[in-house]
Q: What sequence folds into this?
């Protein structure tokens, strides 16, 4: 059985986790938006999506196998049994087109605010509502994360 997954951070096309987890193991379904807000984390390696807010955050939908979903669960430090210690919670949420119309209900990883360490790790608000644009606006991160994205 295949699942649909919305990605908004380092799993997006061109970023480092995309090449490791999705490049050869997924079918791109299209661009979409989620409502909420996008935040930096102090670790700086992945953004935090919070469901609070009405920002339209750009991302991509991929169709993936159960095996790939399980592998991404490990990347996101998600397990069904240890909710308070998870970094992210995987759940089904609505995604929208550019007009704000619901187009699907797919899996997404939401930053787990029941994890006390996550609360302490929340950084600045990502005003671009697009993690790739945010990285392009960050010179040091652009060099670190974006070299492959710019080559395509």
A:
């Amino acid at each position: 059985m295949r699942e649909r997954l919305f990605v908004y951070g380092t799993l997006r096309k061109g970023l480092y986790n995309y090449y490791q987890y999705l490049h050869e193991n997924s079918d791109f379904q299209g661009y979409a938006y989620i409502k909420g807000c996008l935040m930096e984390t102090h670790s700086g390696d992945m953004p935090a999506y919070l469901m609070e807010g009405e920002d339209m955050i750009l991302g991509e939908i991929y169709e993936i196998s159960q095996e790939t979903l399980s592998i991404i669960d490990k990347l996101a430090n998600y397990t069904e049994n240890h909710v308070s210690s998870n970094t992210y919670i995987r759940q089904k949420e609505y995604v929208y087109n550019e007009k704000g119309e619901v187009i699907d209900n797919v899996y997404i990883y939401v930053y787990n605010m029941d994890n006390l360490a996550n609360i302490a790790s929340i950084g600045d608000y990502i005003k671009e509502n697009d993690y790739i644009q945010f990285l392009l606006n960050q010179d040091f991160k652009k060099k670190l994360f974006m070299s492959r994205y710019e080559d395509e």
User: Anything to note?
Assistant: Residues 2-147 form a domain with the Hypothetical upf0131 protein ytfp fold (CATH 3.10.490.10).
